């Protein structure tokens, strides 16, 4: 999935993904974003991108939302006060907030998109 995100001068963009630091062991891929509930790599997400006025917050939120996955990211984003989220799940479906959808230009044709309620 390729996209362009509109960013103002006082915003940070952070993407957490499970592909950059990974390895295959006995035919199974492992990455470095660990779900503290299981002690194993988080499941369900390929990548999460967050826009926020604070870079540290964007980093922390992207990792927390990656761990929460496609089923649990909305309440976590709401609790953290994050309004701009794009999560790509393992199937390639795009999950995003309406605010992020307005700031995103998708370069792929006809992706599967699921919008959350406004946060």
Report on this model:
This protein is an alpha+beta fold and 119 residues long. The chain has a single domain (3-18, 44-115), classed as ApbE-like domains (T-fold). The chain is 27% helix and 37% strand. The chain contains two helices and eleven strands. It has helices spanning 55-80, 98-103, and strands at residues 3-5, 12-17, 22-25, 28-31, 34-35, 40-41, 45-52, 84-89, 94-96, 104-106, 113-115. The strands form four sheets. The chain has a five-stranded mixed sheet with strand order 2-7-8-9-11. Strands 1-10 form a two-stranded antiparallel sheet. Strand 8 (84-89) and strand 9 form a beta hairpin. The chain is globular, with a radius of gyration of 14 Å. The two termini are 24 Å apart. The mean pLDDT is 90.
Which homologous superfamily in CATH is the superfamily?
ApbE-like domains
Compute the number of helices.
Answer: 2
Radius of gyration: 14 Å
Distance separating the two termini: 24 Å
The top level CATH class name: Alpha Beta
Would you list the SSEs in sequence order as H and E? EEEEEEEHEEHEE
Number of separate domains: 1
Overall mean pLDDT stands at 90
Indicate the structural class. alpha+beta
pLDDT < 50 stretches: none
Oligomer: single chain
Characterize the biggest β-sheet. Answer: 5 strands, mixed
Count the strands? 11
Task: Record the strand order, biggest sheet.
Answer: 2-7-8-9-11
Named at the architecture level, the CATH assignment is Roll
Helix content: 25-40%
Query: The CATH topology, please?
Result: T-fold
Strand content: 35-45%
Shape: globular
